[in-house]
Structures are given as structure tokens and as C-alpha cells.
Amino acid sequence: MSEQGKSPRVALVTGAARGIGKGIALRLAADGLDVAVNDIEANTDQLKGVADEIAATGRRATTVVADVSDPDAVQSMVEQVAAELGQLNVMVANAGIANVKPLLESTPEEFDHLMSINLRGVYLCYTAAAKQMIKQGDGGKIIGAASIVAYRPFPLLGPYSASKWAVRGLTQAAAMEWAQHGITVNAYCPGIVGTAMWDYIDEKLAENEGLRKGAAIEKYSELIHLGRVSVPEDVASFVSYLASPDSDYMTGQSVMIDGGIQFS
Ligand SMILES: NC(=O)C1=CN([C@@H]2O[C@H](COP(=O)(O)OP(=O)(O)OC[C@H]3O[C@@H](n4cnc5c(N)ncnc54)[C@H](O)[C@@H]3O)[C@@H](O)[C@H]2O)C=CC1
Ligand SMILES: CC(=O)C(C)=O
């Protein structure tokens, strides 16, 4: 119980074994929420490490191994979190993958796989969380991972950019439909964050453009007006706001948190 005698709010963060998701999970725990962290089976050890870090701060933590593209797994994940931590108040649909390739070399199978995680996964997490929050009857905060490419695609990241553009649309529709239940739905749009995802993007862009390793991220970083590559904590600070009552009058927005690359 908190000082006010109310149970701490509970957040679920997908793709939280590393990178931005880990940063968000640790920040929400620091904000006083109990936190469930999700990732795929291959990252189970890292995921447990994140849960241990949260528990060390005095908050309750639990891990849920699940693939966000699987409807049954997502439904079970939400049920498990509500059963173990008592409720679900904040859903952060963060899990995502990138694929760097010219459109003319991409395959329908690669396209479907990327969409199954980046778009269908977000849709499944949004809807499963909303059903749980409506059942609880006390509103909630649903938050999705978009990107600056939801406003202006990067070449060689065509399907990825389209998936993030679609997350922006889904976020607007969900905000309209669930406002009546006191649920706000917003998305964060990071720019260039130095995570494993950008290690991969840098390597692939370098291959495609005949650059040395590290050169692509340097090149793209020249676009950042604030003059440095982002860290997960930059994004987590904004998600902290979206998860808090301070953002209660904001819904349907996909907001750039990119050091000043893209302007809407
Ligand atoms: N790194 C960047 O510059 C940017 C990242 N983003 C978005 O932020 C989110 C997090 O990105 P990063 O932390 O950089 O990526 P990352 O690759 O470091 O971490 C993503 C996590 O998601 C997990 N994941 C992948 N597929 C999954 C699935 N099917 N089910 C559950 N978990 C799954 C991975 O195992 C990994 O732990 C992604 O949605 C990404 O598209 C958006 C803009 C910029
Ligand atoms: C990975 C990503 O979304 C960007 C913009 O770098």
C-alpha cells in the first residue's frame, strides 16, 4: 500500500529485456509503480535481470515471457499480470523489430513478420489491456511505440516506417473509442536511440551504402539539433509523463521525442 492507502498502480512493459523497454520499466518503478516486464523466450535471463533491478528498488515486479504477435499469449499475459499484481493500469506496447532493406528486395514474408510484431502486436496489447481496464472500471493509460518514421519514413526502412505510421493511426482510433472509459491512448516517437536496434540498423545501412561500421549512425546523427544520440532514459522520461495523471487531458497523440530531428 502507498502512503495514501491505495495499492500502487501496475504497469506492463513489452520488449523490456533491454533498450528502451528496460529504460521505461525502470523509470516507472522509480515513479512508484509495480511493473511487469515482458519479452521473448530467448531473452529470459535479461528479462529476469530487469525484474531483479525493479525488485531491488522495493517495487513488486514480475516477468512474462510471451510473443506479442500471438493473441492467446497476449491475453494470457494480461490475465497473469492482473492476477499476480492485482490490476493493470498502464500498458506500454514497446516491443518492436526493424528490417533494413530496399523495398524492391524485401519479401512478403518479411513484411508480414515485421507487421505481426510492430503493428499486430501493438493492436493485441492495446485491446487486451483496454478490455482489462474497462473491466476494472477506473480508466487507464495505454502507450505505444511509434517513431519519427511515423511522420517521415527513412529509406531502406519502408515496411518498418509503415508499421510505425500505422501505430499512429491505431493510437488515434483507440483514443477516440476508449475516451468514454477514461482510458487515454498515446504513442512516443523516438528518433535515434543507441540500442541494439540501432546497432543492427547501422550495420545494415553501412552494408547497403558501402560505409564502415558506425558511419551510418554518425551520418544520421547529424540530423539531431540537440547534438547527441538519444539514450533510453530520454524516452522513458516522456513515457513517465504519459503514464502519470499529469497527462490526463492528452489522448490520441504521437509525440516526437527525438532531440529535434523531425517537426510535426
Ligand atoms: N532505437 C531507436 O532508435 C528507436 C526505437 N523505436 C522503437 O522503440 C521500441 C524499442 O526499441 P529498442 O529498445 O531500440 O529495440 P531493441 O531491439 O533494443 O529492444 C526491443 C525488445 O523487444 C523484444 N521483442 C522483439 N520481438 C518481440 C515479440 N514478438 N514479443 C515480445 N518482445 C519482443 C526484443 O527481444 C527486445 O528485447 C521498438 O518498438 C522500436 O521500433 C522507435 C524509434 C527509434
Ligand atoms: C529505429 C527508428 O525508428 C529510427 C527512427 O531510427
Largest sheet: 7 strands, parallel
Radius of gyration: 18 Å
Percentage of residues assigned to helices: 40-55%
What is the CATH architecture annotation of the largest domain?
3-Layer(aba) Sandwich
What small molecules are bound in this structure? 1,4-dihydronicotinamide adenine dinucleotide, butane-2,3-dione
* Amino-to-carboxy terminus distance: 41 Å
Strand order of the largest sheet: 3-2-1-4-5-6-7
What spatial form do the alpha-carbon principal axes imply?
globular
CATH class of the largest domain: Alpha Beta
Category from helices, strands and their pairing: alpha/beta
Find the CATH topology of the largest domain. Rossmann fold
Question: Spans of 5+ residues with little confidence (pLDDT < 50)?
Answer: none
Protein name: diacetyl reductase [(S)-acetoin forming]
EC number: 1.1.1.304
GO molecular function: diacetyl reductase ((S)-acetoin forming) (NAD+) activity; quinone binding
Pfam families: adh_short_C2
Short description:
GO terms for molecular function: diacetyl reductase ((S)-acetoin forming) (NAD+) activity; quinone binding. This protein is of the alpha/beta class.
Verbal overview:
- With 264 residues, the chain is of the alpha/beta class.
- The protein folds into two domains: 10-191 and 231-257, 3-Layer(aba) Sandwich (Rossmann fold); 192-229, no CATH class.
- It contains nine helices and seven strands; from the N terminus they run E-H-E-H-E-H-E-H-H-E-H-E-H-H-H-E.
- A seven-stranded parallel sheet has the order 3-2-1-4-5-6-7, with helices on both faces.
- Helix 4 (108-118) packs parallel to helix 6.
- The longest helix is centred in the middle third of the chain and has 21 residues, at 158-178.
- The chain is globular.
- Bound molecules: 1,4-dihydronicotinamide adenine dinucleotide and butane-2,3-dione.
- 1,4-dihydronicotinamide adenine dinucleotide binds at residues 14-15, 17-21, 38-40, 43, 67-69, 94-97, 117, 121, 145, 147, 190, 192-193, 195-198.
- Its EC number is 1.1.1.304.
- Belongs to the short-chain dehydrogenases/reductases (SDR) family.
